[in-house]
Automatic annotation (TrEMBL), chain A:
Gene3D superfamilies in the cross-refs: Folate-binding superfamily
UniProt name for this protein: Sarcosine oxidase subunit delta
GO biological process, one term: tetrahydrofolate metabolic process
Organism encoding this protein: Mesorhizobium huakuii
UniProt xrefs under InterPro entries: SoxD, SoxD_sf
GO terms, molecular function: sarcosine oxidase activity
Taxonomic classification: Bacteria, Pseudomonadati, Pseudomonadota, Alphaproteobacteria, Hyphomicrobiales
UniProtKB/TrEMBL annotation, chain B:
Stored PANTHER family: FAD-DEPENDENT OXIDOREDUCTASE DOMAIN-CONTAINING PROTEIN 1, SARCOSINE DEHYDROGENASE-RELATED
One of the Pfam families matching this protein, by short name: DAO
GO-annotated cellular components: cytoplasm
Gene Ontology molecular-function annotations: oxidoreductase activity
Record-given protein name: FAD-dependent oxidoreductase
Domain of life: Bacteria
Record's keyword annotation contains Secreted: no
Record's keyword terms, sorted: Oxidoreductase
Length: 83, 413
């Protein structure tokens, strides 16, 4: 069983979470960045920041995960990255 | 074929041939360098050398020949897509498989046994009608069938009448089939090699040298080569290799997993898939049941399998064929797929003048191997993108001219 730590509920089975995709550098609200935000999402071979949702509690969080090793390095609430 | 078989059988001294040409030293320059020795790259090399007479071609493969997704796919070949542009393209692909064994003088075991996709809801049936009408309009053999016909096509299927996944009908695609993926790759490699094409295994492209909007040199772990034109077809790593050439692609990597059971007596002579259960099954000519399904739920560039996904596949398979419950799994694996936002490939021109793309094949590119190879070779040889490829141009994302092809993914096979 693979675990992901919800910042509110603690470590849970990853099947309780929904993947919402990478945190994108481009801003969909800016017309000149729209295409970039819609289609050119982040896809690094390395550490990526990404959105997840813990479905039972509807907690939306950010995870930092390595896209080759699949290791989860940190999880935190948006804008509350621990020091 | 029968005549050549007879000749072969009666010949007293058969000289075995080498399928995969040996890797020679790298030359200093090539007219065309193909990056990626998977089915797509090899098919392009075959068409360039055998049809267009361009023989100074090198295929560079970082691992071993066709060891990427060409070796990992579940070999479904079909053309029952949604959009007119896709049906036209994939139909040409199926037709090339129909003559492939003869064309290559190599038995690729193409078996056109038909594909049945099950509908478990009215909504799915409605979408099937749409696909059937589009297919018929384009001249493919495809129709919506009722439960009775489903029973006749697949007598051992659990129809679960009244249950959670009640079968309400299906989409029958008589042109669908499978072929031996390795044989196809070896056949292309052998013929490309016979006409001067060089196939370099263990040769990894590590970077490019550019002048203006052209690539002048390709850097590899075995040295730097001057190039006339470049074709990129590197499967799961398309986003990364394009980035080395300074080209951004709308691609994200997801793993796709599959598995096979121990061999069983033949019981399934068609390909069967379920849109609801995200599972599809086909029995190989050796009797193994090949089981595939949807992609992993999050981005990953690793070929490790996960227990979750295997359990999910097993669950779907058992639902459709409960008597498989004691059957052992023989092998299981994963491949990295290069997914585009509209489930359609990216073929044709790139922002660089002499750099061509055959990318974004995601979970659906095996069936397209011959047609992509043929049409990309034509593009390189003539410098003009043929009409059938135009809808797949990279620029479609800038103009919102997407080709939404949910019919393309393994999940909704
Ligand atoms: C489990 C699974 C099931 C599938 N099922 C089906 C199916 O049923 N039907 C279907 O149509 N499609 C299916 N697919 C998709 C299909 O396998 C691929 O789309 C197709 O094989 C792509 O072929 P390719 O030649 O482009 O890529 P590949 O066969 O992956 O070849 C690309 C090659 O490029 C090489 N390479 C990468 N980087 C470099 C570099 N820097 N330098 C040199 N070489 C490099 C790789 O080593 C690799 O050999 C499936 C895929 C998977 C993973």
């Amino acid at each position: 069983m693979k675990l992901l730590t919800c910042p509110v509920n603690g470590p849970r089975n990853i099947t309780e979470f929904q993947y919402l995709g990478p945190v994108r550098a481009a801003d969909a609200e800016q017309p000149e960045q729209l295409i970039e935000a819609l289609f050119y999402a982040e896809n690094p071979l390395g550490v990526m920041r990404e959105w997840w949702r813990h479905t039972p509690s509807n907690t939306v969080l950010i995870a930092e995960r390595h896209t080759v090793s699949d290791q989860i390095l940190a999880t935190y609430l948006p804008n509350r990255k621990p020091a | 074929m029968p005549f050549s078989l007879l000749k072969y059988g009666l010949r007293s001294r058969h000289v075995p041939f080498r399928d995969i040409p040996p890797t020679p030293d790298l030359k200093r320059s090539y007219d065309v360098v193909i990056i990626g020795g998977g089915g797509h790259g090899l098919a392009a090399a075959y068409y360039l050398s055998n049809v267009h007479g361009i023989r100074n071609v090198a295929v560079l493969e970082k691992g071993y020949l066709a060891g990427g997704n060409t070796a990992r796919n579940t070999t479904t070949i079909r053309s029952n897509y949604m959009t007119e542009e896709s049906v036209r393209f994939y139909k040409e692909g199926v037709e090339l498989f129909e003559t492939m064994s003869r064309d290559l003088g190599f038995n690729v075991m193409f078996s056109q046994r038909g594909q049945l996709t099950l509908a478990h809801s009215e909504a799915t049936l409605r979408s099937f009608h749409l696909r059937a009408e589009m297919g018929k309009h384009m001249g493919t053999r495809i129709e919506v069938v009722d439960v009775q016909t489903v029973k006749e096509l697949c007598p051992h299927l659990n129809l679960d009448l009244g249950g959670q996944h009640e079968v309400m009908g299906g989409l029958w695609h008589a042109d669908g089939g499978t072929a031996r993926h390795d044989a196809m790759a070896w056949g292309y490699a052998r013929h490309a090699g016979a006409r001067g094409g060089e196939i370099h295994q263990r040769t990894e492209v590590t970077g490019f040298e550019q002048a203006g909007d052209r690539v002048t040199h390709v850097r590899t772990n075995r040295g730097t080569i001057a190039v006339g034109q470049v074709l990129q077809a590197v499967g799961g790593l398309n986003g990364q290799v394009a980035a080395m050439a300074g080209i951004r692609l709308p691609i994200r990597c997801f793993p796709l997993q599959a598995m096979v059971t121990q061999p069983l007596k033949p019981f399934l002579d068609i390909l069967v898939s379920s849109a609801n259960l995200h599972t599809y099954l086909v029995q190989s000519s050796r009797g193994e049941v090949v089981i595939g399904g949807g992609s992993d739920p999050y981005q990953l560039a690793s070929t490790r399998s996960t227990l979750d996904q295997k359990e999910h596949l097993a669950e779907g398979a058992l639902h459709l064929f409960p008597f498989l419950h004691k059957v052992k799994l023989l092998r299981q694996w994963a491949g990295i797929t290069d997914m585009t936002p509209d489930y359609s490939p990216i073929m044709g021109a790139s922002p660089l003048k002499n750099y061509w793309l055959d990318c974004g094949w995601g979970t659906w590119g095996f069936k397209a191997t011959p047609v992509a190879g043929k049409r990309m070779a034509e593009t390189i040889a003539t410098g003009r993108v043929p009409d059938v490829l135009k809808p797949f141009d990279l620029s479609r994302f800038d103009s919102f001219a997407l080709l939404n092809e949910m019919g393309a993914t393994a999940a909704s096979h």
